[in-house]
Amino acid sequence: EDGDFLALDLGGTNFRVLRVKVSDNGLQKVEMESQIYEIHEDLMRGSGMQLFDHIAECLANFMEKLKIKDKKLPLGFTFSFPCHQTKLDESILVNWTKGFKCSSVEGKDVVSLLRKAIKKRGDFDIDIVAVVNDTVGTMMSCGYDDQNCEVGLIVGTGTNACYMEEMRHIDLVEGDEGRMCINMEWGAFGDDGVLNDIRTEFDHEIDMGSLNPGKQLFEKMISGMYMGELVRLILVKMAKEGLLFRGKLSSDLRTTGHFETRFVSAIEKEKEGLQKAHEILTKLGLEPSHEDCLATHRICQIVSTRSANLCGATLAAVLRRIKENKGVERLRSTVGVDGSVYKKHPQY
C-alpha cells in the first residue's frame, strides 16, 4: 500500500484533520501530519450548515498550510455518532449525542452535507471515499498491525465499542459465511431501564440536565463528558451536608460544568494529586483543608473506578460472545482502544 490520504475525525468538542503518507519500497513507512480544531458550544448547538461550513473551513486551512490545496486527495471521514450506514460513503445521522444538537442534520446523510459545504467554498476539492465510526476506525488501525484484533473500544468524550460478529447471527444480511463488524452503540445501553438498579441520584441529575434526557444512559455513567460533572455534584452534596469545606460552597462549584474532567485526571496523578486537588479547589473559590483534598481525591477515584469497572464488565461480555462464537476453551484476542479518558487519565 502507498499513497497520500486525508482523514477527518469528528466525534467530540474537538475534531482532527490528518494527512497520511504511506510508502512501500520494501519497508512499510507511514508519515502523519495532523491539526486539532475546536468546536465551540455555539457551533455544537447551532445549525448543521454552520457546523459543516466550519469543518470545510478548517480543512481548507489545513490543506493551505501543507500546500496541497491543488490536489484532489481521497479522504476518510470518521463520524462518531449513531448513524444508519447505507453505503461505504453514505451515513444517515440517527441522533446527536455528546452535547451536540445541531439543527437540520438528524435524518440526513452527513457525507452529503460535508460535500455541499466544500463545494460551496470552491477553493479545493477532495474525494470522500468512506465514512466510519471511530470504534471501527480504531479496530481497523489496530488490526493493521495485529491480526488478532476483533474489538474496537472508545473511552473519550463518549464511549462505544464494535466487534466482529459471525454472519450466521446477522439476520439483516444474506449468507452465513464470514464475519461482519458490528457497531454496538453501547453508550445507549440502559435506555430501556436495565441499569436503573445501579444508577445513583447523581446519574439521574446528570441525565435530567442533559440535552438528551433518557438517552445514552450508560455513556453518562462512563465518559469524559460527564465524569467531572459527576464529581462536582457529589462535592456539592457533601458540602451542603457539612462534610466538606466547612459546609461552605463557592459560586464556581455551584455552576454546572465548572469541575472539568481534566481536573479528575490531574487529581488522580500518583505523586502530585493532592497538591493538584488543593490548587483546583482554591481556583474554584474554596478554602480546602488537607482532609477536603483527601476526600476530593477519593471521590475522583470512585467515579473513575466505577467508569472503568462498567467498561470492563461490558467488554468482558463482548469477549465472551466472541469466545462462544468460536467455540474455544481459551480466547486469544486483541482490543484496540482509543479516546481521551483512556489516554490521559493516569489510572484508567
From TrEMBL:
<comment type="similarity">
    <text>Belongs to the hexokinase family.</text>
</comment>
<comment type="subunit">
    <text>Monomer. Interacts with TIGAR; the interaction increases hexokinase activity in a hypoxia- and HIF1A-dependent manner.</text>
</comment>
<dbReference type="InterPro" id="IPR001312">
    <property type="entry name" value="Hexokinase"/>
</dbReference>
<dbReference type="GO" id="GO:0006096">
    <property type="term" value="P:glycolytic process"/>
</dbReference>
<keyword id="KW-0021">Allosteric enzyme</keyword>
<keyword id="KW-0007">Acetylation</keyword>
<dbReference type="GO" id="GO:0006006">
    <property type="term" value="P:glucose metabolic process"/>
</dbReference>
<keyword id="KW-0963">Cytoplasm</keyword>
<keyword id="KW-0496">Mitochondrion</keyword>
<protein>
    <recommendedName>
        <fullName>Phosphotransferase</fullName>
        <ecNumber>2.7.1.-</ecNumber>
    </recommendedName>
</protein>
<dbReference type="GO" id="GO:0005536">
    <property type="term" value="F:D-glucose binding"/>
</dbReference>
<dbReference type="GO" id="GO:0001678">
    <property type="term" value="P:intracellular glucose homeostasis"/>
</dbReference>
<comment type="function">
    <text>Catalyzes the phosphorylation of hexose, such as D-glucose and D-fructose, to hexose 6-phosphate (D-glucose 6-phosphate and D-fructose 6-phosphate, respectively). Mediates the initial step of glycolysis by catalyzing phosphorylation of D-glucose to D-glucose 6-phosphate. Plays a key role in maintaining the integrity of the outer mitochondrial membrane by preventing the release of apoptogenic molecules from the intermembrane space and subsequent apoptosis.</text>
</comment>
<dbReference type="InterPro" id="IPR022672">
    <property type="entry name" value="Hexokinase_N"/>
</dbReference>
<comment type="pathway">
    <text>Carbohydrate metabolism; hexose metabolism.</text>
</comment>
<dbReference type="GO" id="GO:0004340">
    <property type="term" value="F:glucokinase activity"/>
</dbReference>
<keyword id="KW-0808">Transferase</keyword>
<feature type="domain" description="Hexokinase N-terminal">
    <location>
        <begin position="1"/>
        <end position="144"/>
    </location>
</feature>
<dbReference type="InterPro" id="IPR022673">
    <property type="entry name" value="Hexokinase_C"/>
</dbReference>
<dbReference type="InterPro" id="IPR019807">
    <property type="entry name" value="Hexokinase_BS"/>
</dbReference>
<comment type="pathway">
    <text>Carbohydrate degradation; glycolysis; D-glyceraldehyde 3-phosphate and glycerone phosphate from D-glucose: step 1/4.</text>
</comment>
<keyword id="KW-1000">Mitochondrion outer membrane</keyword>
<keyword id="KW-0547">Nucleotide-binding</keyword>
<dbReference type="GO" id="GO:0005829">
    <property type="term" value="C:cytosol"/>
</dbReference>
<dbReference type="Pfam" id="PF03727">
    <property type="entry name" value="Hexokinase_2"/>
</dbReference>
<feature type="domain" description="Hexokinase C-terminal">
    <location>
        <begin position="151"/>
        <end position="348"/>
    </location>
</feature>
<keyword id="KW-0418">Kinase</keyword>
<dbReference type="GO" id="GO:0005524">
    <property type="term" value="F:ATP binding"/>
</dbReference>
<dbReference type="InterPro" id="IPR043129">
    <property type="entry name" value="ATPase_NBD"/>
</dbReference>
<keyword id="KW-0324">Glycolysis</keyword>
<dbReference type="Pfam" id="PF00349">
    <property type="entry name" value="Hexokinase_1"/>
</dbReference>
<keyword id="KW-0677">Repeat</keyword>
<keyword id="KW-0067">ATP-binding</keyword>
<dbReference type="GO" id="GO:0008865">
    <property type="term" value="F:fructokinase activity"/>
</dbReference>
<dbReference type="GO" id="GO:0005741">
    <property type="term" value="C:mitochondrial outer membrane"/>
</dbReference>
<keyword id="KW-0472">Membrane</keyword>
